[in-house]
Amino acid sequence: MAGPGRGVDESEGANASVSERSLFADVPHAEPLPVSLPASPPGIQPLSPDRSAPIPAPAPGPVIRFRRLLSHLSPSGVRNSVASAAGLELDRGVAFLLVPVFLACGVIVYFSLAVEPDFAQPIAVVVLTALCAAVTRSRRKTHLCFMAALLCALGVLAAKVETWRAGTKMLGSEIQTRLTGRVVRLDQMANGRIRLTIDVMSTARPTLRYAPERVRVSARKIPAEMTAGSVATGYVRLLPPTGPVRPDSFDFSFDSYFAGIGASGFFLGSPKIVVSEDAPLTARLSSSIEKARETIADHIRDSIGGAEGEIAAALIVGVRAGIPEEINESMRRTGIYHIISISGLHMALVAGTVMGLLRSAFALFPDFSSRRPVKKYAAAAALVSIAAYLIFSGIVVAAERSFIMLAVMLVAVLFDRAALTMRNLAISAIAVIVVSPHEVVGASFQMSFAATAALVGAYAGWSD
User: What's the pLDDT tens digit per position in 117-160?
Assistant: First the structure.
């Protein structure tokens, strides 16, 4: 029999059987309330209502685009654009790449002067511009201008120091005298004569009061036992170094001054060997290197023979005097004469060959090469090899410049830096300018660094 409590339970069960959807069936749906989104910050596009993608901004009309173009082409717009681009390049470190440019400008200014300045003048300019650059550090534009002026002044000072350091005594007029000196170098010329580079020890009949320290003379015949380091004597006809053949052409006297050659000429007879006291250590070392160089050149000539042997000797050890004149003229006309001058091509071939062979040899021992920095070992060996090649090639200026450039790149490899970068090229140019400022006014320096800069820039653009 059902009690009061049971009736209540049955009614609750009946009510529970009604669905929730039917309870709200007659209630009208409410409209969604409008939601105001915060405004987007400038430069950020607002999102669509479903938050899935940004709402595309309306394209500016032609009038707005024309006004923007006019604003960019106005003087203030151009000034702002240039300032923004310059600031971006300075932040990227481009200012360091301009250091050799301004140094070279200072060198060109020095060699363009009509009157030789004293040391006091460039030193005073350097000190003054350095003080101005230090005072204006808070003003960026002014500071950069004074830094550029300081680098130009340092270029002038570097050229002045090199000119003073060379101090080559140049013969003033043609003269005949008996000359005694130590043979520094012998070159067999194509016409059968022998060209000798001699360090002057004494002159007689007449005695020159202002005798050059080194001369370059030729002879038809020399004693068979004469080599580098021998002391030779003979009657010579000396002439001062010649200047340019025509205005603004190559100045032979300029090149001779920085090469230390104070006169040139020829023996009026055959030179003779005289016995002298022991040579200083530097002279003995130089003569030993020159003898080894002559031995290598003679071996190449004997093995190949003819004009081909002379060209091979020039390519390997830099002995160019024996190349026939008609071949020299043909190479000049075809524009390939530079290949027989020991320079960047030869240094790069030596360094690349040594590094390639050593890395290939290390690859044969995978356990060792996987645990050791074999690339650095190969770079160090390549650096030593090009230094030795520089010595045996006669330490000519083009080879010296190429050695500096390659040495900077190989040292960068040793310190885990990128080798082919504009920064390394700038360091090489700075080193060359500091060591040999007079090279700046030569076509060899300008073409070498221009070509290298183009190659590095193209490589960087291609790699990016």
Answer: 999 999 999 999 999 999 998 888 899 899 999 999 999 999 99
Q: Is position 22 within any domain?
A: no
Whole-angstrom CA distances from 106 to 15, 442, 450 are: 104, 15, 18
Omega of the bond leading into 206 within 30 degrees of 0 (cis): yes
Residues 344, 459 share a domain: yes
Judge whether 362 lies within some domain: yes
User: Per the structure, how many domains does the chain have?
Assistant: 4
First to last CA, the chain: 94
Across 269-375, where does the E strand assignment appear? 272-274
Residue 33 lies in a domain: no
Those residues whose C-beta lies under 8 Å from the C-beta of residue 452, and which sit 6 or more positions away, are 344, 405, 425
Q: Which pTM does this prediction carry? A: 0.71
At residue 59, φ and ψ (nearest 5 deg) are -70, 140
Q: What is the pLDDT of residues 7-52, one digit of tens each?
A: 444 444 444 444 444 444 454 544 555 555 555 555 455 555 555 5
The answer to the question of residue 367 being in a domain is yes
Residues 23 and 188: their CA atoms lie apart, in Å, by 119
